[in-house]
Design goal:
heterodimer, A: alpha/beta, fumarase, two-stranded antiparallel sheet, 6 helices, 9 strands, B: alpha+beta, 2 domains, five-stranded mixed sheet, 8 helices, 39% helix
Chain lengths: 206, 291
C-alpha cells in the first residue's frame, strides 16, 4: 500500500504503477463530468474543445455561483460546493472516455463495473474512490473553476477545475484487473446465507 | 392561530438551506457508534472522513453534500390552526425556489423527458409536499428533507405473497442491501415499508428511511424486526462507501400498515449517511427551528 502524489495529466506508465489499496493525492487540472455531459458527448455526437489526454475526471455536478470573470474566477463561476456522485450510472462511458479522449483516471463513489475494469486493464486506467457525501471537505481542495464547456447542460456541464492536494483518494480499481468492489461483493454473497439463517430464513445457496 | 403565508415562504427557504448544512444530532451520534464498532481500517478511515466533513461544513458554513436532492416538505397541522391550504403549498414552493436562486443552490430537478432544468429545484409535482394533521392545538410543523439521489435510486417494491410471510420481508431487505452495495453512500438508514397498498408501502419505506436514529416502530413486533434486521445488515460486509467493513447501515427502520388478505407488500428506500432534515415549528410564541 503506497501513497502517490500525482500531478495531472498522467502517463500510462504512472497509472499502471497504481494498485488497489494504494492512496493518491492529485494536483493540477481535474475535469468534472456527469450523466448529461456524457450522454451528449457519446450519444448525441457533441464534442469538447478541451484536451483530455492523460486526464482525471470526477463524477460530479457542482453547486456554483455566477460571478464576474477575473483572475480568480476565469470561467465566471465560483465553486460553492463541489462533491461526487454515484459512478455506476455512467459505467458505459468509461471506455469511450478513455479510447476517444485519452482519459486515464476516473474519480467517483460506489465503484464501476466489469466493463470499466476491462477498459482500465486494456487501455491503462484506474478508478479512485472518494468518500461520497463529503463535499464540504472536497470543496476545500478546489482552487478554481478555470474553464467550462457544454455549459448549456449546467449543472452537468464539462467543468475544468484546478485542484490542490486533492485527496487522499483510494485506488479501488486498477489497471491489473483488480477491484475492491468485487471483493466486497464476494464477501456479501458468502455472508448472505449465514445472515438469513440467523434471521430464521432457510435458503438455497446461490 | 392564523398562519401567515409570507412566514411560510421564508421558513421554507430557510429550512432547505439549513437542512443542507447541519446534520441532526441523532445522526452525529450514529457516526460515533459506528466508529466505536468498526473493525476494518478502510471503513474506519472512511467514517473519519465523513465526520471531518460534518465539522468542515459547519466551520466553513457550507453544504454537507453537493446533492441538493429532491426537496420534500412534510407539513403537520394542529387542530386550532387557521390556514389557506392552497396558499400554503404555493408558499412552500416559492420558498424552495427562492432558496435555490438566492443562495444559490444547484437545482437538481429536471423535466423527466426533456431533462430541462428550471434552476428553481421545482417542477411538476416537485417539491414533494405531504400534508397531515395532528391532535395538537396551536402547532404547525414543517419538516424539510433534501432527498439525495444516490440513495433514492436504490428503491424497491416487492408484492410478496401471504404464504411467503415475514421471511419474504427479511430476505428482500438483505438482498436490497447487497444489491445497493456502495451506490447508496453507506452507512445508510435502510427504510422498510411493510403492508398497505403498493404506493402506501413505498411511502412507509420513505418515512422509515427519514425517521430519526434511536426511534423505534410503535408496534412491538415491528420494532423487533427492526432490531433483528439492523444487526443482520451489518454482517454483510458491504461497509462504509461499499468498500468493506461493519458500517453498512446506522439502522434498519420499519414502518407498517395493515394490508389486504391477498397481499404482503415490502418496500425498501434508503437514506445515505448525509441524512439531512430540518424542521420549523410554528406556535403562538413564534417559529422555532430544530431537526
Amino acid at each position: 500500500m503506497a501513497h502517490y502524489n500525482l500531478t495531472l495529466p498522467v502517463t500510462e506508465q504512472m497509472v499502471r504503477m497504481l494498485r488497489i489499496n494504494d492512496t493518491v493525492t492529485l494536483n493540477g487540472i481535474l475535469f468534472g463530468i456527469r450523466d448529461a455531459t456524457q450522454i451528449h458527448m457519446f450519444d448525441r455526437g457533441r464534442t469538447t474543445r478541451f484536451d483530455m489526454s492523460g486526464a482525471a475526471c470526477i463524477h460530479t455536478a457542482p453547486n456554483v455561483r455566477k460571478v464576474d470573470k477575473s483572475v480568480a474566477h476565469p470561467a465566471g463561476y465560483a465553486p460553492v460546493c463541489v462533491g461526487t456522485t454515484t459512478s455506476a450510472r455512467m459505467e458505459r462511458f468509461t471506455r469511450p472516455l478513455m479510447s476517444q479522449y485519452g482519459v486515464r483516471i476516473l474519480i467517483g463513489k460506489g465503484g464501476l463495473l466489469e466493463e470499466s475494469r476491462a477498459a482500465f486493464q486494456e487501455l491503462g486506467g484506474a478508478y479512485l474512490a472518494i468518500v461520497g457525501g463529503t463535499a464540504a471537505l472536497e470543496t476545500t481542495w478546489i482552487e478554481a473553476i478555470v474553464d467550462v464547456d457544454l455549459d448549456d447542460l449546467n449543472p452537468e456541464s464539462l467543468w475544468k477545475f484546478r485542484v490542490r492536494d486533492f485527496g487522499p483518494l483510494l485506488v479501488a480499481m486498477d489497471s491489473h484487473g483488480a477491484s475492491l468492489y468485487d471483493a466486497v461483493k464476494q464477501t456479501g454473497i458468502e455472508a448472505r446465507q449465514r445472515v438469513l439463517a440467523e434471521l430464521g430464513v432457510k435458503t438455497d445457496a446461490r | 392561530m392564523k398562519i401567515d403565508l409570507l412566514d411560510v415562504e421564508e421558513v421554507s427557504k430557510t429550512l432547505y438551506i439549513r437542512a443542507l448544512k447541519v446534520l441532526p444530532p441523532d445522526i452525529k451520534r450514529g457516526f460515533d457508534e459506528l466508529v466505536r464498532s468498526e473493525t476494518n481500517p478502510t471503513g474506519q478511515a472512511v467514517l473519519q472522513t465523513m465526520i471531518k466533513n460534518i465539522t468542515v461544513a459547519e466551520d466553513t458554513d457550507n453544504l454537507l453534500c453537493q446533492d441538493t436532492g429532491i426537496p420534500i416538505y412534510n407539513v403537520t397541522i394542529g387542530r386550532e390552526i387557521e390556514y389557506d391550504g392552497y396558499g400554503l403549498k404555493q408558499a412552500i414552493r416559492a420558498g424552495c425556489a427562492r432558496a435555490t436562486r438566492e443562495y444559490p443552490l444547484r437545482s437538481s430537478v429536471v423535466h423527466t423527458l426533456t431533462r430541462a432544468n428550471e434552476h428553481t429545484s421545482c417542477g411538476q409535482g416537485i417539491p414533494v409536499i405531504h400534508i397531515d394533521f395532528s391532535d395538537e392545538s396551536e402547532k404547525l410543523v414543517i419538516e424539510m428533507i433534501p432527498k439525495g439521489s444516490g440513495s433514492e435510486n436504490n428503491s424497491w417494491l416487492k408484492m410478496a405473497l401471504p404464504s411467503e410471510g415475514i421471511n419474504a420481508i427479511k430476505s428482500f431487505v438483505i438482498d436490497c442491501v447487497l444489491e445497493a452495495g456502495g451506490k447508496t453512500c453507506p452507512p445508510t438508514i435502510v427504510g422498510v415499508g411493510i403492508g398497505g397498498t403498493a404506493d402506501l408501502c413505498v411511502h412507509l419505506a420513505k418515512q422509515a428511511a427519514t425517521r430519526a436514529l434511536g426511534t423505534h416502530a410503535d408496534d412491538a413486533q415491528v420494532a423487533q424486526l427492526e432490531s433483528a434486521l439492523s444487526a443482520a445488515v451489518n454482517q454483510l460486509g458491504v461497509g462504509a462507501q461499499g468498500l468493506g467493513g461493519d458500517s453498512t447501515a446506522f439502522a434498519v427502520h420499519v414502518e407498517s400498515a395493515a394490508t389486504h388478505i391477498t397481499m404482503n407488500p415490502v418496500a425498501v428506500n434508503m437514506q445515505c449517511h448525509s441524512a439531512r432534515r430540518a424542521t420549523a415549528t410554528f406556535t403562538p410564541a413564534g417559529v422555532h427551528y430544530g431537526f
